[in-house]
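REQUEST FORM: STRUCTURE PREDICTION
Request ID: SP-0412
Submitted by: Lab K.M.
Chain count: 1
Length (residues): 241
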Amino acid sequence: MKRRTLLAGVGSVGVLAGAGGILSGAVPVDSFTEPRSGNTPTETTGETDDGPIELETIEATGSEAGTLEVPNDGVTVAMFFAPSCGNCQALMPELRAARDELKEEYGDDLTVVSITPEQDHDELREWWDEHSGNWYLGFHSGRSLASSYQVVGYPVVIIIDENGEKHRHMTGNPDARKLKYAIEPELEAYRERAAETESEGDGENETDTDGETENESAARETETANESERESGESDETETN
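STATUS: Completed
RESULT:
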């Protein structure tokens, strides 16, 4: 069920703080998308009517050339950045530390992607290695994840669940501890929902199994009755003879 062709590549990267966000002094910069309104968003944004956003990823350390869907079957942490942004550079090793620690516990339930408007792949890969990148790396292409989740400027980190709901909108360069404390509760909540869904599925399977058992039992009872009738008929013929 894992849709791990996950997202990569968006245009603008953000600086607005949404509900539950962590403010860390990000500096607004030019962006590739316009916010939906001039006000700071106060509500989380869900999956768009057009379905999951498919972003293009490039080949780099920890990343493969391809596409990535958001939302996907798990929790997605999306970092919007520009290589020339000082706060973005400072955020990278912090995100690396939080991501590495959480991956040990949650594995494929966690997907991390960094998104930039920069499209010179060679320069981007060089920057990526210099700043400890080791996860999906993407750039803007087609529909914009930034506009869908009201992200403007950079750096911004948002957390998106499997239903497309945004749970955090962090600006600036929060340290690894803040990042972990923001991401981990969403991973726990995802696992609880997944366990509930699996439990409901098991319950349906048990009902189906019980139904099959009843049918088999009824069939055996019918066969037993038919055998009894045949034996009774044979017995009557013997007595008549």
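NOTES: The CA atoms of residues 214 and 220 lie 10 Å apart.
Reviewed by: T.R.
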